[in-house]
C-alpha cells in the first residue's frame, strides 16, 4: 500500500479546521487509530510535531500541533470514552499527554503481537501477516519539525493509521482465539496508567563510550561536557548528539586539551560550528580540571538492587540457585503459552525477588510480592506457584 485509500487529507492547522475535524471524529463510530510523529534525532524535546487520527465515518485527520500552538482543546471531548488504538503506545502517550490527549481505553497492537507470540511485531510486519498488505516504508526518522511538511511524508503519516483499526480487529480475534484477550486488557491498562519514569540520578553516565574512561578526573570532564551540551541543546531545542557527538566528549576528556588550539585539533572540534563553541567546551574542561578530589565523580554509579547475575554464584550461591530455577520454570511457562518470557514477568522483578526473597516463600507470600511490584493478575496466576518453588531451590552441593 503506497497511498491512503481516500487520499491524503489537508493538514489541520487552524482552529476552525480543528473544530471541524473534532466534530467529524465525535460523529464517527468505533475505536480511534492514533499515531504521532516526533523529531527525536533532531530536537531535544519529545513533543509531537504531527498527530494522526482515523475513525470509521470520519476518515483520517492530520493535526499540526505546532501551527495550533499546542491548543487542541476541541479534541479531548470529541475522543472522550473512545478506545484508542496505538502501535507501541508507550512511545506516543507522553507526547500526547503534553497536548492534554489521554485515552480512556487503549489497544496496543505491538503489545498484542508480543502476547500472541509473534516474533516480528513492527507495524509493517503485523499488517503484512494479519491483513496481507505491505506498507510503504517511509520517514519515521525524518525531521518532523520541518515546515512545510513534504507531501510524501504526509502520505507516510496517513498510512500509519490507515489500517490500524483493521489490525486491531484482527489482533483482537487472534488473542481471543488464543485465550489471551483478558491478559491483553490488563496489559493495555497498565500501559495506559503507567507513571512517567523518574529522571536518572546521573544521566551523563549514559554517554556512549564512557566505559573507556577510567580516571575520575576524566570522568569529571565527561560530566562537565555532557552538562554544558545538555543545557545548550535544551535551550535551543536541538538533539544533544547534533550539538556534539558522545564520541567527541569522550575523546576530549581523554585528550585533556589545555588551549583552544589543542581542542580544535581534535576531530569534530575543528568544524566551523565547534570552533565557534570552542571557548564553551574548553571552559567546561577547565572547570573539571580544577575540582577538588572530593568533588570528582565515583568511578561507577552506586549500584541499586542485585549485582550482575554472573557474580551471583560467588557472592550468594543460594540466590544463584533460586534464579536458575526461576528462569528455567518461567521459560517453560512462556514456551507453553507462546509468549516472550519478558512479557510473562519482568526480568528485573525476577532477579530482585530471587536475590532477596520474601520471608514467606509460599504461593501466598510470592503473590503478595508480585502484586506489590505491579505484576498483573494474569502474570501472577501463571507464575506465582512456579516462582514459589524456585525460591526454595538450593545449590547442587548443598542439596547433596
From TrEMBL:
InterPro entries: 3'-5'_exonuclease_dom (IPR002562), Exo_C (IPR041605), HRDC-like_sf (IPR010997), HRDC_dom (IPR002121), HRDC_dom_sf (IPR044876), RNase_D-like (IPR051086), RNaseH-like_sf (IPR012337), RNaseH_sf (IPR036397). Keywords: Hydrolase. Residues 215-295 form the HRDC domain. It comes from the Bacteria. GO terms for biological process: nucleobase-containing compound metabolic process. GO terms for molecular function: 3'-5' exonuclease activity; nucleic acid binding; nucleotide binding; ribonuclease D activity. This is Ribonuclease D. The keyword Hydrolase applies. PROSITE patterns: HRDC. Residues 292-319 are annotated as: Disordered. PANTHER family: RIBONUCLEASE D (PTHR47649). It comes from Saccharopolyspora phatthalungensis. Its EC number is 3.1.13.5.
Amino acid at each position: 500500500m503506497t497511498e491512503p485509500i481516500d487520499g491524503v487529507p489537508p493538514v489541520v492547522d487552524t482552529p476552525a479546521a480543528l473544530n471541524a475535524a473534532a466534530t467529524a471524529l465525535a460523529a464517527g463510530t468505533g475505536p480511534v487509530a492514533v499515531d504521532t510523529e516526533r523529531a527525536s534525532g533532531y530536537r531535544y524535546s519529545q513533543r509531537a510535531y504531527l498527530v494522526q487520527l482515523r475513525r470509521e465515518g470520519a476518515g483520517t485527520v492530520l493535526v499540526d500541533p505546532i501551527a495550533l500552538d499546542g491548543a487542541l482543546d476541541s479534541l479531548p471531548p470529541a475522543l472522550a470514552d473512545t478506545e484508542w488504538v496505538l502501535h507501541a503506545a508507550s512511545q506516543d502517550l507522553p507526547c500526547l499527554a503534553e497536548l492534554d490527549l489521554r485515552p480512556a481505553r487503549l489497544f496496543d497492537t505491538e503489545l498484542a503481537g508480543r502476547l500472541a507470540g509473534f516474533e516480528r511485531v513492527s507495524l509493517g510486519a503485523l499488517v503484512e501477516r494479519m491483513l496481507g498488505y505491505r506498507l510503504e516504508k517511509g520517514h519515521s526518522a525524518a525531521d518532523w519539525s520541518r515546515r512545510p511538511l513534504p507531501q510524501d511524508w504526509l502520505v507516510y503519516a496517513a498510512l500509519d493509521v490507515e489500517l490500524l483499526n483493521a489490525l486491531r480487529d484482527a489482533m483482537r480475534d487472534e488473542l481471543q482465539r488464543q485465550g489471551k484477550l483478558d491478559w491483553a486488557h490488563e496489559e493495555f491498562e497498565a500501559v495506559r496508567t503507567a507513571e512517567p519514569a523518574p529522571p536518572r540520578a546521573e544521566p551523563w553516565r549514559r554517554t556512549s563510550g564512557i566505559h573507556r574512561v577510567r580516571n575520575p578526573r576524566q570522568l569529571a570532564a565527561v560530566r562537565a561536557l555532557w552538562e554544558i551540551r545538555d543545557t545548550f541543546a535544551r535551550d535551543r531545542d536541538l538533539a544533544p548528539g547534533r550539538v556534539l557527538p558522545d564520541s567527541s566528549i569522550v575523546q576530549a576528556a581523554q585528550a585533556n586539551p589545555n588551549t583552544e588550539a589543542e581542542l580544535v585539533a581534535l576531530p569534530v572540534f575543528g568544524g566551523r560550528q565547534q570552533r565557534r563553541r570552542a571557548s564553551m567546551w574548553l571552559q567546561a574542561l577547565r572547570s573539571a580540571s580544577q575540582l577538588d578530589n572530593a568533588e570528582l565523580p565515583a568511578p561507577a554509579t552506586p549500584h541499586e538492587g542485585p549485582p550482575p547475575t554472573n557474580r551471583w554464584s560467588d557472592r550468594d550461591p543460594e540466590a544463584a540457585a533460586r534464579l536458575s530455577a526461576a528462569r528455567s520454570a518461567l521459560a517453560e511457562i512462556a514456551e507453553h503459552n507462546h509468549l516472550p518470557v519478558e512479557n510473562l514477568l519482568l526480568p528485573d522483578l525476577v532477579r530482585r525477588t530471587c536475590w532477596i526473597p520474601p520471608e514467606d516463600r509460599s504461593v501466598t507470600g510470592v503473590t503478595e510480592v508480585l502484586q506489590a511490584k505491579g505484576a498483573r493478575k494474569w502474570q501472577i496466576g501463571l507464575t506465582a506457584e512456579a516462582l514459589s518453588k524456585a525460591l526454595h531451590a538450593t545449590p547442587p552441593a548443598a542439596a547433596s
